[in-house]
UniProtKB/TrEMBL annotation:
Keywords from the UniProt entry: ANK repeat, Repeat
Species per Swiss-Prot/TrEMBL record: Cladonia uncialis subsp. uncialis
Name of this chain's protein: Putative ankyrin repeat protein
Matching SUPFAM superfamilies: Ankyrin repeat, P-loop containing nucleoside triphosphate hydrolases
Listed Gene3D superfamilies: Ankyrin repeat-containing domain, P-loop containing nucleotide triphosphate hydrolases
SMART domains reported for this sequence: ANK
ATP-binding listed as a keyword: no
Xref: PROSITE patterns: ANK_REP_REGION, ANK_REPEAT
Amino acid sequence: MDGLSIASGIITLIDATHKVISICQNYKAAVKGADWELPQIIKEVESLRGVLQGLERLAKLAENGDPAAMGQLPQLSRLCDPKTGTLALCLSELQTLERKLIPPGWTGESESKLRTLIQALGWPLKKAFVKETLGNLERFKACLNLDLVTIGVEGTVSLQNTANATQKEVLRVGQNTIDLNVSLCSMRLGIPDSFNSQGLSLRRTSDDHTEKVLRWLSVLDPSIKYNKTLRDRNAKTGKWLLEYEAFFKWKQTPASLLWLFGIPGCGKTILSSTVIKHLLDRRDTDATLMVAYFYIDFSEEKTQIPENMIRSLLKQIYCRSHSAAQELDSLYSDCANGTQQPNLDQLLSVSHRVLDCINDGDIFFVIDALDECKERGELLRLLEGIYEQKHPKLHILVTSRQELDIEESLEAMTNDEARICIQSELVQGDILTYIQDRLETDNSLKRFKRHPKIQEKIRETLTEKADGMFRWVACQLDTFKDCLNPTSLEKALKSLPKTLNETYDRILCGINDKHREYVRKVLYWLTYSERTLNLEEVAEIVALDARKEPRFNPENRFFDSKEILVICPSLVSVYVERSSHGRSSSICVKLAHFSVKEYLTSGDIHKGPASMYAISREIANTSIAESCLALLLHFDKPDSLTYQLEEDFLGYSDRKESLIPRFEREFPLAQYAAEYGVKHACHTSWVGNSTEGLVSELFSKRDTLENWIRLHDPERPWDREPALSRPSTDIVSPIYYASAGGFLKPLEKLIETGADVNAPGGTYGNALQVASYKGHHEVIHLLLDTGADVNAQGGYYGNALQAASHTGHQQIVQILLDVGADVNAQGESYGNALQAASYKGHQQIVQILLDVGADVNAQGGSYGNALQAASYKGHQQIVQILLDIGADVNAQGGFDGNALQAASSMGHQQIVQILLDAGADINAQGGIYGNALQAASREGYLQIVQILLDAGADVNAQGGCYRNALQAASYTGHQQIVQILLNAGADVNAQGGQYGNALQAASSTGHQQIVQILLDAAADVNAQGGFYGNALQAASSIGHQQIVQILLDAEADVNAQGGYYGNALQAALSRGHQEVAQILRDHGAHEDVKNLENDGNKEE
């Protein structure tokens, strides 16, 4: 392929980037609701365009006959291969993106019409699709960048004796090419983090990067609960634990775990906070100490997800350890620079690496309330996984009740001495301190201050009967607030309830009759709401009653929202929660203790006098759903959300404050109702009850439906900001939303009134596809029976069959096939239904599709074909099924090139063997890594490397991002694999790739032992090529003194010229590594050697 043809192909691709950016700019000007997606797409495509423009300039140099550029034509030609070339894959990805962005009905007319359509239809892309597309574009860009860096640098070196103008142009190509944010290189290929506008500075913009990593690791802030608990406790409590022998031994013993357990309300959270404070105080005088903690809270669902716990702990360590930060930076990069999330195995693996790399001081983890986690089995397995490595510096303290599953799990990790039961005699002193503190500081108990004997009576009685329960004591003190004379107090002391449940019975029975219905509703909400509620939201509940008219009556509101705290004494508590930016705060309300929720939802309450307050999930969800729907139905006019009262504009100096919509101040519960009301309805057996009628009403009233979608579009669950001015034309048909929610009766009524079952629109294209994705069998039958097109194209999955196949809804797949769904219909990310099912591992669906004639070798989609998709994801049985029915084991396509490379890159050893046994070409070229051996070498899969070599893999095969397996393994630091490859005959001095050779690759990433292994194997210490020119410059640029010394001892030429920095001394000085610079000077480095880049700049 000549330079002109290559340049023409690259220009086509650049034109595709222009189109995507132009469309995105129109979306940016016309719609809201894509605040994250649009900037990310524009940034990524612009960055990709920069790479392509560098390639274009190089191709034109070749077209004009430049000898050095013409020497790179074979490499450029490989990039342009229509089947396996990176440029072809990249063009396909951009065209798919452009096709999804172009609104239906636009055929290239004026931009004004384009914007009109955009405003009408809104943002069309699902966040998951955007993330996947960004990841693919980053990978393509990384491959292109690797090629271009190599071409640019090699071209620079080869042009040193040519005309200055040509030299300047090649340098400019190199600089423009690598002036990028190559996030995938950090993600999967390990290229340095970022590049500045002067060229490759390899520096990280640390503050911005750190903030992104911290936000990605965890948004949870355990310090909020820690600080609240410290405020609530008396500083004198918990001293017994700090002086306990078992606690002292826990701190001193390597790889230790301590378990504090006790009955409900015994003060476990207070004790864990006391331990945290003790450790943090120690850290103030010992900077090597690491302390990380986490509170699991029954009222905060996010704290009950096991992976959130480990992410929070890792986040806290990130800020305290440079070596730990490097490990977590690597994980962040592996997850597409934070656009993807790590799985639990990755989190566990990185936690071990983090713990291994901290050698200076002890590490303390404190985890409170294991018993409050919904996914307790997963949590305990995670805890076992962290502990089983026996990291000598790690000390873990956990608290919980003495539940059987927790006890069985922790038994293997602790001895009797390391299990502390919080018995009454241990905490009796703390309880006495707590009582005294409340009597002295609680204003509602101040009447007793003038009566020392009465105070003493209270102390003695409560301490004697507490049985170690702080929670019980707190409730009794609350009831004493109503004792206005000695007689009433004496009566209360003589009739104290014996248990917490009996205490709660009395509290509920004591509620004024006229408040009972409201209290019941509030308890429903606080027990089963989807998120924590603020005080204004809770107070709003009294104004809603779906069974009365009007359903929403503002006149029923309390004068003061704080009245809820008065009528629900001891059952609820409040705390202040600050926003993420810290500029605002709200008063949040929750049940006062986990034991309150247990009591309200247990069978015990039915046996007592407060049975009227018993709560079931069904009853609670029905009540919440009715209240939410009643509020949503109140917004029944086109301007219900945007109409503002005149007083809204008074009293504010900030224009933004003055534009607060009426509903945000007057309807504090509106956002919750919009976001979760229908979800609560789905949690009820609502057919035939009032909830069904309310849902039908919501879907049948167009203005009400549109206002609901403006407040919260269920298609965009990540977008919490209401789009109050969203035009009606941007909101898809009610039939789509009814199908998405699985609301059969409302859907029947819509169809009876003439709704079009094939109306296009929405993320999933049409009602049938969204119902297939969600798994609503009855809805699908209704849609098909009333004329839905089973093969309608469009939407995220392309068609309904692919949607059902991907999500694993086997019965729906069969239903769709029975009515004529095209089993080989092509479209979207997974190409076809078979590839989608193979990727997700739905074996039975794969078999069903094959039985009705699915083409096992159909090409398309991100993974090329079904076999590659299954191989990539490790679905062994599906791989065998596909091979047995005739899948082409060597079919090329997709990002990984072929099935063998896909399996090798992901470490699926058994699948690798199956593919080889089935005749896979072990040296097949293509994909990001070029071949299977390079893929396994790069990812560090030792056994797969050995299998491939034993089966005849060419150890010196060229291609892929690293050009050969040895360089890939050397760069990523897989020492054993490096040795195996050398033993198998790898050419230690093979040239090519970004880093020129294996020695430079290992030197550039600081792998000292590999550097020594390569030198011992006769690596040429002065070999030229690659980005850094030679190994010494690579090691100098990263400041690795030991490698620099090893290379110099091996007679590296200290003044060798070439590479980006010109020479090793310039590399060290440019990066601020003064110690390395001095070592180089001591070995004869010349200060006056000029940097090639600077020469080029001066000539410009």
